[in-house]
Amino acid sequence: MTDPKIFAGLNRDTFDTANPAPYADGATRGVSEELVRKISADKEEPEWLLEHRLESLKIFLEKPLPKWGADISSLDLDDIIYYASAGAEETDNWDEVPEDIRRVYDRLGIPEAERKMLAGVGAQYESDMVYHSLKAKWEDLGVIFLDMDKAVQEHPKLVQEYFMKCVPNTDHKFAALHGAVWSGGTFLYVPEGVTVEEPLQAYFRMNAKNMGQFEHTLIIAEAGSNVHYIEGCSAPKYGSQALHAGCVEIFVKEGAKARYSSVENWSRDTYNLNTKRAIVQKDATMEWIGGNMGSGVTMLYPCSVLVGEGARCDHLALAFANKDQWQDTGAKVIHQAPHTSSNVVSKSISKEGGVSVYRGLLKIAPKAHDCIASVECDALLLDEESRTDTIPDIQIRNNDVTVAHEATVGKLSEEDVFYLTSRGIAEEEAKAMIVNGFIEPIVRQLPLEYAVEMNRLIELEMEGSVG
Q1: pTM of the entire structure?
Q2: Residue 418: what are its φ and ψ, rounded to 5°?
């Protein structure tokens, strides 16, 4: 049994404390062909990848900002630093990570979590990976767990076969931006029939003011394999804009099972415009578990494309919208094959005028008969100022399906709060207990240590909620 106290000591200073960032002084702001060529040259990329970057840049410059969802018109894309290196060489030994950077990950509990319960860890700081390690027993079974930059060098054909095939650069403006300036991220390959019994994790940290982070996560779970990957991320608060536009692509082959968990806790300064998608083959299972909080604006809708007969997916998500936050989140499920099934459970909490929106797509193709799909959206409002919306898009193209959709909105029960306070529990603690009960179906799906982290983050968001 591992120690759940790994993350219990987290507080707001853990995330908001920034290191000095002299490497960002005079860094190029805005995106250009010159910058894109520099990124590619620094990483010594093959010609096909440079061409893909340049094509993506052209698409980015041509595409308009999204007109739906959160208002991002105030995002100044010319003031963002798209690429900056803190100058640390990647290592598989924490003692070799520069001390100031290592302290950040020590505060976050990542090295301790690795020792106690993880099969491997990656740590990215700004645009570069500074640490990456995989336990020998999984490496001996053929598991590949590298940062994306290194994967391009060591497994070029494998990367080229899958890179941005799940999320094309034509998808939307920020997918194109990602294709142009992506840096770092995770490459995870699990061979046929291999079950990785411990989770693997990558943690992405932005540090400098006006920074942008564009990590690329590519996961390939071969037939009959089983893997659980966890991502965490954070950034300090400066009072000026930051941008996160990462990309996650997951390929789940026949009979395989992949679980992707994420706890995203960017600062209020951050626009979190992430894209995540999985292609799920015959009899395979894709599970998404996510918590979104912290960022001022989030637009994130993990997507499962069920292309093989008997494929299934589960989406479990939690969003917390506090003051001056707009959490526009949801899920997309596309049933392209018969006998497929999906289950979406989305929970949101709004406080002090925060806005939470569930925006979902459920699409069932004409030939996808005998499908089962369920969508459940539950929203909790903690005061009269806050807001929640549910915007489902359900497209059914054949009659041989079973579809259920349910949406509920509730407030904190005065009777429940009164009952708990009458038993000697402080009002703020009573409200937190009710909120923890509301989110429990999501949190219980995380490994114990990360459930503790999620609960602690909710506690931090709940501070000062009385009145």
Answers
A1: 0.95
A2: -60, -45
